[in-house]
Every structure is written in structure tokens, then in C-alpha cells.
Amino acid sequence: MAMISLINIPCPHCLRENAVLEVEGETPQSLKGTFALMAICRSCSGALIAEVDPQHEILNHRAGFFNYAKKTQRDVLLDCRKHYSNEWGRVLRTYPTAIIHEAPDATPERVAKFFVEAKENFERGNYETCGGLCRKVMDLATKQMAVAEDISAWKLQKRIEKLKEKGVITKEMYEWADIVRLDGNEQTHSEDEFDPQSAKAVLAFTETFLLYAFTLPEMVREKRKEAEKDVA
């Protein structure tokens, strides 16, 4: 039997990437000329509504996605990427919307990758993993900030101490980095459970560090460039 599925979207409930969201029902929205499709995540059974602008001629005559799939014996895959249309239709919006996690602006790509993973694990309730990833973020971030090759090769504790001595980070940034380092170490070696409040605090410390380490300096550089252009 042909199926109708939504693709290229994380489940807004369990946050599974590229979740299998199978459409179970549809309602034509006559005033809009669209269809409201109700889909179920096969991982967590969470429900999602997608508003779809039909592209196919048959669908435009309100035959419906299910009738079209049944008649043609073809699976209908509706791509949920923004502004992306395929043979059958364009997904205009979904309810609820999955939370898209991002790192602070100007964060180096690899550092940002693990920070996003830390946030995703926090949302999933994987607090120990979140703490360990925050420590990894701090390790990679301080290597990016190292002003000499020998510093980047040192252990995290010695590296952040050296960065503070050289004035690359402030005393407050050093303390934030050390908190994340210690909590990350604890999660790696301790059998104690890492509670949500501790994970949330470590995540906040990590994000603040990235803002001061990468976002604010980049903002200053951009402002200076603008000032130089105005003078020229």
C-alpha cells in the first residue's frame, strides 16, 4: 500500500533527525487552497500537522494525497525543507515546529557542531552526555584561541590558565571554563547522576564563554571595518 510521508525534518517531540513521519489523515483547506496533513512519528508517536500547498494537477482538483497515492500506487514523499517544492507539493509550515539549535555567531564550525549536540542532548534528557560534550566544546574552543602551538597541545586546565596569563581570556572567562572543565570531568569519571539543573548551568556557562570568545570579538571587527569604510 502506498504511503504518504514527511521527510527532511526532525521530530519536534523526540528530536530524532530525519524522523519517519507517516501521514495518517488529511483535510482540504478550501479557503487557502491547501491541505492540512496529520502525521505520526514512528519513533515516539508524537503528532505533527503540516500545511501543504499542492503542486500536482490532480491534487489541485482536491482529489487528495491519499486518493492520488492509492490510484498511482506510489509513495508520496513531501519534503519539509524551507522553500523546497517537489512533484506533489510544498510544505508551507508545520505545527509544532521543531526547535533548531544553533551555536553563537562566529563560533568555529567544529566547536559549534559539538555545542549543538550538547544542546540537543540536554533537550533529550541526556544530561551526562550534555556535560561531557560541553567539556569537549571548551577543549576545542580554547585550542582555537591558543596563541602558540605549544599551548594548544597542553591539557585543558593548563591551557586555560595560560590563556588567562596572556590576557586572551578574562578572569571571569577562566572561571567559566574551569567550571565546565570540572563538571565535564566529573561526568566522565563519576557514577553520580548529573541532574537537569547542573546540566543547564554548564550549558549556560559554555554558551556565555563562546559569546565572549568568538561572537563579541567578531562584532567588534565588523564595526571597525564599517568605521574604516566610512572614513575612507
TrEMBL record:
Pfam families: DUF4145. This is DUF4145 domain-containing protein. InterPro entries: DUF4145. Residues 126-207 form the DUF4145 domain.
